[in-house]
Amino acid sequence: MPNVRLALAQTNPTVGDIEGNSEQIFSAVAVAAARGAHLVCFGEMALTGYPIEDLAARPEFLESAEEAVLTLASRLVDEGLGDIAVVVGHPALAPQNTQRESERLSEHDWSIAQNVASVIREGEILGRYAKHHLPNYSVFDEYRNFVPGDELLTFEHLGVRFSTVICEDIWQSGGPVAEISRAKTDVLLVLNGSPFELDKAGRRVELARAIAAQHSCEVVYVNLVGGQDDLVFDGSSFSVSKHGEILVRAKAFAPDITFLDFDAIAKTGRSTETEAATHSQLESVWQALVLGLRDYARKNGFKSVVLGLSGGIDSAVCATLAKDALGAQGVYGVAMPSRYSSQGSLDDAADLAGRLGISIRTESIEPVFKTFQDQLTLTGLAAENLQARIRGMILMGLSNSHGHLTLTTGNKTELAVGYSTIYGDSVGGFAPIKDVPKSMVWDLARWRNAEATAAGEIAPIPENSISKAPSAELRPDQTDQDSLPDYKLLDEILELYINQHLGVSEIQAKGFDGAVVSKIVSLVDGSEWKRRQGAIGPKISGMAFGRDRRLPITNRFKSH
Amino acid sequence: MPNVRLALAQTNPTVGDIEGNSEQIFSAVAVAAARGAHLVCFGEMALTGYPIEDLAARPEFLESAEEAVLTLASRLVDEGLGDIAVVVGHPALAPQNTQRESERLSEHDWSIAQNVASVIREGEILGRYAKHHLPNYSVFDEYRNFVPGDELLTFEHLGVRFSTVICEDIWQSGGPVAEISRAKTDVLLVLNGSPFELDKAGRRVELARAIAAQHSCEVVYVNLVGGQDDLVFDGSSFSVSKHGEILVRAKAFAPDITFLDFDAIAKTGRSTETEAATHSQLESVWQALVLGLRDYARKNGFKSVVLGLSGGIDSAVCATLAKDALGAQGVYGVAMPSRYSSQGSLDDAADLAGRLGISIRTESIEPVFKTFQDQLTLTGLAAENLQARIRGMILMGLSNSHGHLTLTTGNKTELAVGYSTIYGDSVGGFAPIKDVPKSMVWDLARWRNAEATAAGEIAPIPENSISKAPSAELRPDQTDQDSLPDYKLLDEILELYINQHLGVSEIQAKGFDGAVVSKIVSLVDGSEWKRRQGAIGPKISGMAFGRDRRLPITNRFKSH
């Protein structure tokens, strides 16, 4: 068995920053070479970032990517790194003769690109693999954007036979993946852009084990890392032997280069370690949210965020996430009391800011509210919404004046049932906890406090913000449970309706009250128009609001 | 040749209103029967409305549609209409053994439905055709939502042989449509959910002619009509003979039942009439916008709209559209002057309201602006945005108090370059002219005025609103051209960048100034986050903002 050292290069690209991403790739190859690597494998579309969406339809974009691959190849030779095999993901113009058989669009020549892995060596492109299975479900639109490939790429490097596939290809049967054994593959390189989802990491490992066993080869799984709009790539690249042993494991939620010595593989045996052992669920979610927020801010040029601090749990968790993402100096809190705000809420907000060491200012909404009401005299819900909208206007004014990214602090439960004011508390460019159900917001707060305490630090979130009854404080003595069922019950029903696609009678059959279920389902359906205008935020569940769940606004279907 | 009478039933369904749509279908069959029809053909998904998006993933929804087909079949028999063949579009659970061959999703069992046409006769489902070509480009996600069918359905009724396909099937080569001649088809029934786009109607007719000539059959093209979120189905159903003659043509933008006598077809010859002759482009656009707005309001339960009247051209056109859609009594205009508003603007707004006979009230933004500024003292762009946001707050307050749908009056040019204030002038549930470039807004205004004048009515839009230089009036003596190029030039460049996917250097090569092009492209790219939070509005172009154009917010690619 030859002695070949592989490097799993887990980079954090930015979509469209081809130059910057190329630099990352070059540096990673140089670092890997310095540590003796003979082959370096990157994640899916590491050169352009991922997903590129309809940028795939722009010839200019594809040409820029192609030029960057050639430039990288030359530069590697120029810098004496030409003998290293580099496997890098990028989009490429589909070959002229590639037809999506009978599905090829004649009138609308939309898909002109392929999602490929190029193998670079000695300044040349040794081969190119085009992704076969194009995910077109959940947040993915790959059948829209790409033409599928249909051939496995196998190449030999220093006596070892490598085959290359991309992400979804190992999740489906059929296609090039079926050819792995026939191609006498020693090592299968899988380039991935696999976003974080609760409990997904373990499934990846199980899948890689199954492929490794079936095709009797080692599997190297390289994932991207970093936030891209509503997705967070969690990294966690790994390799499994044909015996099922986890050979290496890269960091979660951070760039990493991990090495794997091929001659050491033969010595391995069976392992049953699973990902679950390495990260608790809440820890993973927290890190995903921090990375999603940090990268959205960084990649869009924001150094600071502004958010309202109500004294409640949602804004407390968002402020803590923001501090973890950007540092205390990048977080600007604003307490915006109304006539209905309790002193306790103001105290809790100030307590939070003190614990986090972040800036806080107080801007009463009372003067503007009074002036507005002297003129229009709104009542009921309209008056409640008005208060939220004045707060939104203050936050946007500060954002416009100081260049802060505005964070909106709504959680998934609120977004589901429409318990928010559009153009009010919903204003902002990013929604850090939009995919976190209210029950989990509390869990995260407790987890984060416990972590801090265990580390001998100050628990960031005031106990009072966790334990008190949640209230929007838009009218006297209001609590959320005046208009909504208990959050635990609510979240259970939402899980069944939204994530599991069950109807009212099916949910009722699980022991829930039919009237409550109907009411909740009706609130969810009626809030679609608000969600459509909402900010993006990191997906952590199997069914996030946004492009993961696409429903008409005009929709009279009533689940029954 | 037997004497068979066909009816093209062009209905306006509402997505999800299976009961109401069924009622429409039953009534149309009854009316057609009373006029001697032997076969009635409906549009694509006439039973559930279209597009249903991810409702296709809900078993309960599919079961409800299936039940409705069976109920309709029984009811037709009960009412003595069982001998009529009824061809109706709806979604259906895909047969258990249907596999999307190698593409079938194992892990994510997303597509469980098919997009079908059922043939009902004598209380039974005689046959069912499943759409083969699933559009997955532009606004369509059908490959996400459906499993493709692969067999043509041919049936005989009163001695005539009919075959059935659905919409995209005739726009692509291959698949069931190739079997039409072999099946000895006399009449091809094409069920469509084809949204309005500028200049599309003529292409449909040409395509049907080509199919008719190629397969030597008559082609019956039945389209839906009505607005559904951002789409407007324009109706305009038609039939062409194998000789290319247009046999019948249904109304554009209104429900219709049109009859075609099969024994009369043999007498036809070649015709060269095209759709362009029947509607001017501006008339079609106006009708599409009116129908889109009317149906969004009606299908979502709104009887009235509220909008800001600035005295400018955009709000004038939107108010006129709203009056044409809902009647003058359903339109509530609000003039919201600031310290920078000219008396001329107020006069123009009042003049417009008088001409339209709509309600107008004046709410100065000055008191709230002053109170806010006494507290926060915003300057520059932040202060300009503040004014727009106070207006948004007033409109939403009135909307919340009175149940009006808020209209946002931004045009496509403004949305493209981000010349609007998020949570300010962008607030609203519907954006009537969001896909209309500024140059066309003026054209539409002139066209609508000329139509009125020709009909002896008062021209609705004040000449001054058309002729004056556009201004946001957010600072002294401001005009749009302070920060933007001339609108005609701007629209030409936007057409090339957005609709034609050209890059900066390609646009420059067409004779435009490189610096201007770069600036505009950069404005477009930088406004993606605002557009993501924008209201929906009717698509009239080949590339509308929204689900037609899907780009990342985080995107550092610079066209060059």
Which short descriptors sum up this protein?
alpha/beta, Nitrilase/N-carbamoyl-D-aminoacid amidohydrolase, 6-stranded mixed β-sheet, Rossmann fold, homodimer, 560 residues, elongated
Could you walk me through the main structural features you see in this protein, from its secondary elements to its overall organization?
The structure is a homodimer of 560-residue chains. The first copy, chain A, is α/β, with parallel strands linked by helices and 560 residues long. Chain A has two domains: 274 residues, 4-Layer Sandwich (Nitrilase/N-carbamoyl-D-aminoacid amidohydrolase); 196 residues, HUPs (Rossmann fold). Chain A is built from 17 helices and 18 strands. In chain A, strands 5-4-3-2-1-14 form a six-stranded mixed beta sheet. In chain A, strand 12 and strand 13 form a beta hairpin. The longest helix of chain A is centred in the last third of the chain and has 23 residues. Chain A starts with a strand and ends in a 28-residue tail after the last helix. At the A-B interface, helix 2, helix 6, helix 9 and helix 10 of A face helix 2, helix 6, helix 9 and helix 10 of B.
Strand content of chain A: 15-25%
Helix content of chain A: 25-40%
The CATH homologous superfamily name of the largest domain in chain A equals Carbon-nitrogen hydrolase
> How would you state the average pLDDT of chain A, rounded?
94
CATH topology of the largest domain in chain A, by name, is Nitrilase/N-carbamoyl-D-aminoacid amidohydrolase
Which residue ranges of chain A are poorly predicted, with pLDDT under 50 across at least 5 consecutive positions? Answer: 99-108
Number of domains of chain A: 2
Specify which chain pair forms the largest interface. Answer: A-B, 101 and 101 residues
Going by CATH, the architecture of the largest domain in chain A would be: 4-Layer Sandwich
Oligomer: homodimer
The CATH class label of the largest domain in chain A is Alpha Beta
Number of strands of chain A: 18
Contiguous helical run count of chain A: 17
The largest beta-sheet of chain A arranges its strands as 5-4-3-2-1-14
Which overall shape of chain A is indicated by the principal axes computed on the Cα atoms?
elongated
Structural class category of chain A: alpha/beta
Q: How many whole angstroms does the radius of gyration of chain A measure?
A: 26 Å
Distance between the termini of chain A: 63 Å
Summarize the biggest pleated sheet of chain A.
6 strands, mixed
